[in-house]
Give the backbone structure.
Amino acid sequence: MSDKVKELISKCLQARDMAYCPYSRFPVAAAVLTADGAIITGCNVENASYGLTVCAERTAIQRAVVEGYRKFTAIAVTCDIKDRFVGPCGACRQVLMEFGSDWIVYLTKPDGSYKETSLLELLPLAFSPAHLAKN
Ligand code: THU
């Protein structure tokens, strides 16, 4: 594992402690790696009006965009489930696709072990910004 991936995983695991999930009690965290090596984290932020909950992956992306980043190479995602690798929800896959299809995705268990996959694998035949380009 490269030092950068180690750092990405470690920051992702730390961010899980920040999850605001009083309703589900299901903490989730994400950490995105930008093309120039910065790491931005996110956690789920729930709401008493349940549907307004924002997933960890999306809080990470939104923070990153506000910080001026739009090029990403990888994302790590983690939750409390110890016995299997858990992927991002469908909505978050689409939000990641907005910023390119060639993301590496590290599905990470609480002990830091991970399964490496890709956004293309998680969201095949996706709708993407390219489809909006005029013919
Ligand atoms: N959640 C995420 O943060 N990311 C996902 O990809 C799936 C679900 C959150 C939303 C909610 O706060 C909790 O997990 C239970 O659904």
Q: What stands out?
A: The mean pLDDT is 97. The pocket of tetrahydrodeoxyuridine is lined by residues 21, 24, 26, 28, 44, 46, 53, 55-57, 88-89, 92 (CB under 6 Å). Helices lie at 3-15, 56-66, 90-97, 119-122. The longest helix spans residues 3-15.
